Structures are given as C-alpha cells and as structure tokens.
Amino acid sequence: MDTPLSETEYDKLESILEQFEKEDVMNLEGVDGLFTALICSPEMTQPNIYLRAIWGDQGIPANEALSNDQDTQDFMFLLMRHWNTVARKLDADEVFSPILLEDSDGNAKGNDWAKGFVRGMQIHQEDWAELSDDEENGGSLVPIMALAHENDPDPEMRPYKEPISEERREQLIMGLATGAMSSNKYFEPHRRMTAKAGNTFKRETPKVGRNEPCPCGSGRKYKRCCGDVTLN
C-alpha cells in the first residue's frame, strides 16, 4: 500500500477511468484533486464517501472495465496506493506537484483537477468555509476556484470574461500547488486536535452492515469492499 504507482499503473488507472467518461465519472486528474482536498481536510474520509464522488455521486456505472470482483479489487488497490502517494507528497518538504492531463494539443488546463479539489471541499463544507472566510489565508484558494469555474455553464460564475492567456494559466496552475500546500498547512493544527481528541472520523453516512451491499456501488458486500480497506 505504501508503494507509489509506476507509470504503467497510472496508465492503467487512467485507462479504466476514461472508459467511464460518458458517465460523468472523474478522470485521473479530477481524482488527484479530490484526494488532495480530502487529505488536507481536518476530518478523515472513508473510501465509500470519495468513491461516490468519483462516480458522480452514483454507484459504479455498468462497464466492462470493472466486470468482475478481481477487476474491482485491482482498481481499488490502485486508488488506495495513489491516496497514500498524495498524502506523502503533501507531507514532504517539497513543492507539491498535481497530476494534470494534457489535451490533444499537449496543453495542461488544470480545470479537472480544480473541480476535483472543489468537490472534496464540498464533502467537508463547514471546515473549508472556515478557510475560505479567513482573510489572511483564504486567498490561497482563489486560483483553484478560478480554474474550477473557468467554463462554468453560469456566466456569472466564470472568473474572467475573456479567455485565459497562457501566462495567466501558468500562474493559476502554479497556484494549484501553492493552494494545496497552504490548505494542508492551515488544517494541520485541526487534524492534530482531532487526533488528540480521539475523534479521527466523522460519520457522514449511515452505518452499513458487513454483509450488506457496499454503498460505493461496486455490487460487492461491504466487508469485501470498502469495509476491508485501511488507509495510512
């Protein structure tokens, strides 16, 4: 679980997610943003919570990519290892590097990563509202919000009336990394306090019996899916 994914394994994870593109499922870039926000958050997040976010708050869509228990287990294993990789990167004394996919022209836009991060913020909305309202530290979220809403269907939500220049996009993408590191640092005292109080997990869904279907939508029993997962 502590071994970082190889390039081949990242390609496999990306390939699986791409097969669900028409189902409004997050791609690898979005998952990276989602995980980053959730790991930064004061409260621990169980797999069944973030899996529903990945699937667009639905169960796993029917698809040959995850046609049997072994495929699902392998997919989950890759996700868990990536979660741990993101956690290590945030804790390292280095510049955080988000996973950004390039378009057909070889350009990284950063929109999906920012949308994934914002989705993670929404899962722990009250905690993130505290940071957003913080006059001294809330500005670190501005680049993330700008890229998340760049192409919003509601014109009022878009940060810029004109298309973003290459120079500005480069600055905003740098802001994604800075925002992630700043958020992680901001919530560090909160996480220590929560851990010290012995309340490391706040339940956000009803308790699920071990023999009941897993709420992530995999179709497997809870004890054989998210109930059998331990995150570092």
- Portion in strands: under 5%
Class from secondary-structure proportions: mainly alpha
Overall CATH class: Mainly Alpha
Low-confidence stretches: 200-207, 226-232
Mean pLDDT: 84
| Count of DSSP-assigned helices | 8
What is the CATH topology classification name?
A: Four Helix Bundle (Hemerythrin (Met), subunit A)
What's the helical proportion of residues? 40-55%
Instruction: Give the end-to-end Cα distance, rounded to a whole number of Å.
Output: 8 Å
For the largest beta-sheet, the strand count, sense and barrel status come to: none
Q: What is the overall silhouette? A: globular
Number of strands: 0
The second-level CATH architecture is Up-down Bundle
Give a written overview of the molecule.
The protein has a single domain (7-207), classed as Four Helix Bundle (Hemerythrin (Met), subunit A) (Up-down Bundle), CATH 1.20.120. It has eight helices and no strands. The chain has helices at residues 7-18, 28-40, 47-54, 69-91, 111-123, 125-132, 142-148, 166-196. The N and C termini lie close together (8 Å). Mean pLDDT is 84; it is low at 200-207 and 226-232.
Keywords for this entry:
single chain; globular; about 230 residues; mainly alpha; Four Helix Bundle (Hemerythrin (Met), subunit A)
Question: SSE layout and pairings?
Answer:
Elements: H1 7-18, H2 28-40, H3 47-54, H4 69-91, H5 111-123, H6 125-132, H7 142-148, H8 166-196
